[in-house]
Each structure stands twice: as C-alpha cells, then as structure tokens.
Fold this protein.
Amino acid sequence: MRCAVPLAALVFAATSLAAQSTDTEREAAADIVRQIDSLEARLQPARTAERLAARADAGRDRLLARVEAIWNGEMQGLSDWIGQHPEVGWHEFLAVDTLTAVLRRYGFQVALGVGGLQTAFTATWTSPAGAAGPTLGLIAEYDALRGTQGDFHGDQHNAQSPVAFAAAAALTEYMAGAKVLGRVVVYGTPAEEVDPPAKFILWKAGVFRGADILVRSHSTVETRRDRPGFGVCCLNINAVKYTFSGRPAHQLSSWNGRNALEAAVQFYSAVDHLRSTWRPEHRVQGVIPEGGVAPNVVPDHAVVDYFIRYPDEVYLEHIDRMMRDAAQGAAEMTGTDVAITRYGEDRDGITVSSLEELFWAYAKKLGAPGLKEELGRPAGYEETGFVSREIPGVGITVRSSSFPNHTYGMRDDAFTEIGHRGFLFDAKIEAAVLYDFLSQSAFRSAVAEEHRVLAGLQDRYLAQLRSVYAPEIGADRALSNQSHMEIRVPKVERPERQP
C-alpha cells in the first residue's frame, strides 16, 4: 500500500458529481457517471448481495466454520511468524519458502519464480471433478516495509497470505467433497511496497491469465466498501529516476569538471518552481539518493528519484512531460547529461459494485468491526490497476488496527486481538465471496457484465479527458512525449540458509 490515508482523488459518486476533484474532471465524467448510475440501477448489486448473504445455505456455513478452524489451528500462528521475520520487497526468501511449503501440504502444485521474479509464485489446486469450472484466484502478499528501526510489517502484509490460505484451503475441501468443477489459484505477489510494481510485471507476463475472479485482503482502520468506477488506492503514479552524469575534477579546479549534483539540485529546485503551474491535486515527492562520494571531488553522478502522482493519468503525463523538460534544461545549463527512466506505473483500476456490495453484506452479516456506511471512492482492488482492468475482483478490508497504515502501532496490532480478529473476518469474507461466485451462475454473469461495461466506459472517459484537457495542456504534445517504462527488477542474492 503506497500511502496511509487516501489523498484527494477522482471519485465517481452515484448520486452527485460533487465528488469530482476539478471542473475539468466533472466535465469529462458527467456522461460516464450517468451511464454508471444506469448500469447499477439495472443490476441492483446491493439488493443481490443482501439476498445472497441472507439466504440459508448449509454448505456455505460449513465452509465458513472450516475457515475459522484453519485460521485458529495454523494460519494465525503463521501470520505472527511472518510478522516476526520481516523481509522487504524482492528479499522475501524465507517467507516464500515457508508459505509454499504450507501450500504443498494442502495439495497445491507450486510454481516458483513466475514472471521472472525470484520471490513470486503461483499455487494451483484442481478439483478432482475437473477443471472445467470457475478459476478462483487469491492474491497473497508478504513483503515488509523499510523503517528507521529496521524492516517491519507496518502494513500487516504478514497476514495477507495466511488469510488467503485459510479461505483457499477451506474452498478446496468443499469443492473436493461436493465434486464441484473448477480451480483455486493462490498468487504469491512480492514487493508491493517498492517499484517496479510486481503485479504489473506478473500481469504483463500473463501470470493472472485464466482467473475469473481475484480477491485480496489488506489492513485498514475501518471496514468500508467502495463505489463503482475507476480509481486506485493512492492516485495514478509514475515512478521516475533522473540520472545526471558529469565529469569529475578536483574541487580546487572545479572548472575542469561538470557537476552532476549541481544539475540534480537545479532540477529539484525547478520542480518546486513548477508546482504553481500544476493543478492543486498533484502530489509530487522526490529524494536525491545519490549525489557524490567525497567533498573534494566534483560529483560526476547524481540521481533524483520522484513519485509523480495525480488523480487521472492524462494530466499526470502532462506533469511528467514538464518535469522531463526541466531535467533536460538543468542538464543543458550545467553541461551534464541526464538519463530518464520511468521504472514504475500505477494506474486506475476498476471497482465492481457487485463484489463490493457482497463483501459489505457479509461483513455486516458476520459482525465485522469498524463498519462505515459511507462508500469510499473507487480504488480497484490492487495497487497497479492494470490487473483489475482485466479481471474482476475485490479487496476485503476489515478493521485490523487502531493505528494508521505504515506505522509501528499497526505492526503491533497484528499480534493482538484487534489484528487476529480482523484477519479472521477477512478470511471468512474472502471464502464467502468466492463460494457465491462459484455456486451462483447468475451472480457470475452479473459480475462479468458489470466489469465489461465499466472497462468500456473507462476507455471513453480517458478519451474525453484528453479532449477536455487539450486547450490547457496540448493533448497532442503530452501524448507524443510519453516515455516508455523500463522495468529493472533488482538482482538479489539469496542468503545462505541458516542451520
């Protein structure tokens, strides 16, 4: 999760356009929101969800009881263990070894290193009745945060895999016993907290291909479902590095050198001077992680690293282009060179109300804590957006801490009653949603239709945004200057196994 509290962002409201961030967005979204309203009025997702959750179903109730037994019997302890052994993104070797060993015991066929990522995996279970049924996908995360006091699970990713495992294991037992066709696939996705986005890499590699639905859980301070539409948890993001190269020299004869650090500082300052020309919803934050090695040597290498954020991806590219021009200008004025690498992209995903309302109906039925009736803004169900544009899904977010995300308080809550209880609700709701998707063909059709229509509307919305923004930013220039993302996954040496 890239931010602790949602920032100002584009929101589709079924009752009002007032939730749009700017006049430009309101103008572009007006017709799209009306069509989303019409779709939801026809599908009636809240009414369907309430009916499904309220119905008597002995099979579902036994499934949920089994989820609780598996959680209490093994998965809660596994969650605590991962929390006590934090590993940051791309380094989650111990977690992957442990998690995949557990999955093999439950009868899953494990594939390691999928998508070319060392600490990614898939685990597949096929029903003895056959695979010719829905493929139920569960996303499992396990990376920790970097912190001043060492690596720590301040976003409670330690629980996301055990939560998914409890739901998946109970579902496989039910499907085997009832001779239900289909597959259950657990997707082990590393490095959620760092770039490049692992789920984007896995999506590009086709790892998620074939899934009919994806579910995921995440830590939160409240239990809330989201509106239908387009959005992402922490705004659209370009992660960009600007690498300045100069020429070294002794500081006593600095004129013989070309100072890459001065170029980087000029660029960093220029970005601050550009802020008044950007719409106020932007969030642009950067650091200078490399700026030289010795005071008496003119730095010939410096790096500026930025996260460029905006509520929509069209204006985001406008900001990106202006920053690229500023970097090139700083290089020209200092006689240095600059290489610009976009190493990560997060984009709006699709929020499907049919699944959000079903999550909410079960949260209320089961008595989940921290219920908030007000709908959140659309956020997809995972941070990259690209996955949820292709596959419908839902993020289960039950209150599991009284502290904000990315804090030591949230880490500590993962080991106490508030965390353990929230995680159990996550697991039971994941299982309930997947059970209804598996057993209710009409519901599956409604989910597929809603997702398909929203995906079409998203393409139209982006086209309309480009048209509305054109007088302000020059749409043709903004589009023609887009850079390509260059994915460089860090090469990490696997530590030697300790005796």
User: Anything to note?
Assistant: The CA atoms of residues 182 and 432 lie 16 Å apart.
